[in-house]
Amino acid sequence: MSTRAGFVALIGEPNAGKSTLLNRMVGAKVSIVTHKVQTTRARIRGVAMEGDSQIVFVDTPGLFQPRRRLDRAMVAAAWGGAADADVTVLLVEAQRGVTEGVEHILERLGEIGEGRRVALAINKIDRVQSEVLLGLSKTLNEAYPFEETFMISAERGHGVESLRLWLAGALPEGPWLYPEDQIADLPMRMIAAEMTREKLTLRLHQELPYQLTVETESWEERKDGSARIDQLIYVVRDGHKGIVLGHKGETIKAVSQAARAELETFLGRRVHLFLQVKVRSNWLEEAERYSQMGLEFKDGDA
What we know:
- This protein has 9 helices and 9 strands.
- The strands form 2 sheets. Strands 2-3-1-4-5-6 form a 6-stranded mixed beta sheet, with helices on both faces. It has a 3-stranded mixed beta sheet with strand order 7-8-9.
């Protein structure tokens, strides 16, 4: 029996559905999914088994025009993931079609080099008419020589199985890279922090979610089989601390309850979650924070 294994990079604009597709492919929630754009920071990997193939997904940050240091680090990570992968899948949202951002991605794909296996996945197909889909597929395939095109709905699961089967066959022959039952190569501490950050993102509005980060400070396994998890929420200003806490602590309490419930489902056991909010005005400029998120910190960036 010959096995296959390799890396698949999912690229696309923010909110194209990359995280939803990753979670659908892997069959577990390993990447943060929210209604806000640009919530995936770390290059989170999910591992899916398909027959004798092990597909290791790199869920890259959405590609957009970067302004801040963190933005630039995320975009660099996305293109780095595409350059290093055995197969790249460009995800395009059917409703948005060929935007300026998609055009920019198509240009960069051409620069990565010939001989790479690149597939197109048009997502959210249930929201547009079939003639629009056909026209969009034609336009995109004329702009770049995609090896295959898939019409999918990551949210509903339509077409996802066909994409996964094709990916399984497109990977190079070789031994598996991870144990069969391992779904993510991120430490559980980071997955737990991402779950809490997702709940914060859903509760808070405007710019604040992009100026906070969550860190799992300690993880204690208890004799009764439960886990105590202590997390720190870093914000950049005193005023933000009050927003995260909410009136009489209502916001932080709701976030803690939602995150704990999801962690208990994910881990299959009781969790005691304790959250603290701290002001750390320069966390966006700390190299250590970037490395914890799997991003590269470059001197000289603003």
